[in-house]
Amino acid sequence: ARTGEPSGWDGRGGTSDGHRVAIMANIGTAAEARSAAEAGAEGIGLFRTEVCYLDASSEPSVEGQRAAYAEVLTSFHGKPVVVRTLDAGADKPLPFLGQAAEPNPALGVRGLRVAFDRPDLLDRQLQAIAGAAADSGAEVSVMAPMVATADEAAWFAARARAAGIARVGVMIEIPAAALSARAILDAVDFVSVGTNDLAQYTFAADRQLGAVAALNDPWQPGLLRLIGMVGEAARAAGKPAGVCGEAATDPLLAAVLVGLGMSSVSMNAAAVSAVGTRLAGVSRAACVTTAQAVLGADDARSARAAATAGLT
Ligand code: PEP
Ligand code: MG
C-alpha cells in the first residue's frame, strides 16, 4: 500500500479474487490531474475539456488547446486517459460558441450535438488532442458526450479516427443510448456511463434542482437497470464499459456497478482510495449476485439495503 493510504489498496484495482477493475479519476484541470495521480488513480476516465474554456470569449487555437491538454496529460505519462470532447450547452455554456437561447437547454443543442452543425470545431479539437497525446506520452482515447444513437456514435468515431486517434468511445448518458448500447458498441471501442446525466434524463429530473434530487439518487433501481443493460451489451460485444458519473464515488455502489458488468470506475480523486479498497475486499461473484438482488429492489432505499446485505 502507498504511504498514508488504507491497507488493501495498492493502486491496481480489482476484486479480492483478482478480477481487474481500473480505478480512474475524473478531472478538468492540470491541478486536478496532479491530485488524481497523487491519489493513486490508474488513469483518467473522464477529462472534461470544456472546463478549460468556461471563460473563453473566442475559440482557442489548435496550438493553444494542444498545450492546455498536454499540460493535463503529462501527469499520466504512459497511462490511460480518456479525453472527452467539448460538452458545452445546458449547465455548461461556452461563451465563444455563441449558442442561441433555448427554452429547454438540457434537451437542446449540447454535447456532441454542437458538432453536427460545426464539425470543423470538433475536428480542430481532435487534432489538438492527437497532438497532446504525442507530446505527453499518455495513452489517449477520446469520447463524445450526449450521444443518442448508433449513427451519432459512428459519425464521431469516423472523425476521431481520421484525426489519428486509435481508441474511440462515447458516453452513455441518454436512456436511448443505454437501450441501443449493443449497436453503439459496434461503432466504437468502449462506452462510459455518465450517471449524472443518465439519471437526469431517465427520471426527467433536472440535475441542478434540489427539489427533485431524490429522483437523481444513483441507487434508483430504474437507473441501475439501464446500467445493467449496458453491462450486458458490453459483455456480448467483448468491449469495455465503465462508469464516470457520481455513482462511482460511492464505494458500495461501485461494487454493484462491477457486478453489473462495468470494467472501470472513474471518480473524484478524493474517492479513489476508498473505492479501490472496497473493491479489493469483495469477490466478483458477490458483486454479481448482489447486483441481481439490487436490480430486483423497488426503490433506492431497498436497493442500498440489498447491497449492504450482500456485500458487508
Ligand atoms: C455525467 O453526466 O455523469 C458525466 C460524467 O458528465 P458531466 O457530469 O460532465 O455532465
Ligand atoms: Mg454528462
Automatic annotation (TrEMBL):
It is found in: Cytoplasm. The active site is at residue 244. Its EC number is 2.7.3.9. Keywords: Cytoplasm, Kinase, Magnesium, Metal-binding, Phosphotransferase system, Pyruvate, Sugar transport, Transferase, Transport. The keyword Repeat does not apply. GO terms for cellular component: cytoplasm. Mg(2+) binds at residues 173, 197. Residues 15-281 form the PEP-utilising enzyme C-terminal domain. Phosphoenolpyruvate binds at residues 48, 84, 196-197, 207. It catalyses: L-histidyl-[protein] + phosphoenolpyruvate = N(pros)-phospho-L-histidyl-[protein] + pyruvate. Its cofactor is Mg(2+). It comes from the Bacteria. GO terms for molecular function: kinase activity; metal ion binding; phosphoenolpyruvate-protein phosphotransferase activity. GO terms for biological process: phosphoenolpyruvate-dependent sugar phosphotransferase system. Belongs to the PEP-utilizing enzyme family. General (non sugar-specific) component of the phosphoenolpyruvate-dependent sugar phosphotransferase system (sugar PTS). This major carbohydrate active-transport system catalyzes the phosphorylation of incoming sugar substrates concomitantly with their translocation across the cell membrane. Enzyme I transfers the phosphoryl group from phosphoenolpyruvate (PEP) to the phosphoryl carrier protein (HPr). This is Phosphoenolpyruvate-protein phosphotransferase. It comes from Amycolatopsis antarctica. The chain holds residues 235 to 546 of 546 of the full protein.
